[in-house]
TrEMBL record:
<protein>
    <submittedName>
        <fullName>Helix-turn-helix domain-containing protein</fullName>
    </submittedName>
</protein>
<feature type="domain" description="Helix-turn-helix">
    <location>
        <begin position="9"/>
        <end position="48"/>
    </location>
</feature>
<dbReference type="Pfam" id="PF12728">
    <property type="entry name" value="HTH_17"/>
</dbReference>
<dbReference type="InterPro" id="IPR010093">
    <property type="entry name" value="SinI_DNA-bd"/>
</dbReference>
<dbReference type="InterPro" id="IPR041657">
    <property type="entry name" value="HTH_17"/>
</dbReference>
<dbReference type="InterPro" id="IPR038148">
    <property type="entry name" value="Tn1545/Tn916_Xis"/>
</dbReference>
Length: 63
């Protein structure tokens, strides 16, 4: 059996990314970040969040 994928709540993702809830929901709506529903909760797939962050342009550092 595979190990479960880590997921974070909307509130946790907002704190981790340093963005607002509205912006996070925009990223989900555009398909930039994958989210799942568990009952009434929306969870962000951690691997999707990492991939999104890794895809952002870097400023002044190495590519």
């Amino acid at each position: 059996m595979d190990t479960p994928t880590e997921n974070v709540s909307i509130g946790e993702a907002v704190r981790l990314f340093g963005i607002g809830r509205t912006k996070l929901y925009e990223l989900i709506q555009r398909g930039d970040i994958e989210a799942i529903k568990l009952g009434r909760r929306t969870l962000i797939r951690a691997n999707s969040a990492r991939a999104f962050i890794d895809s952002l342009p870097r400023i002044g550092g190495r590519p």
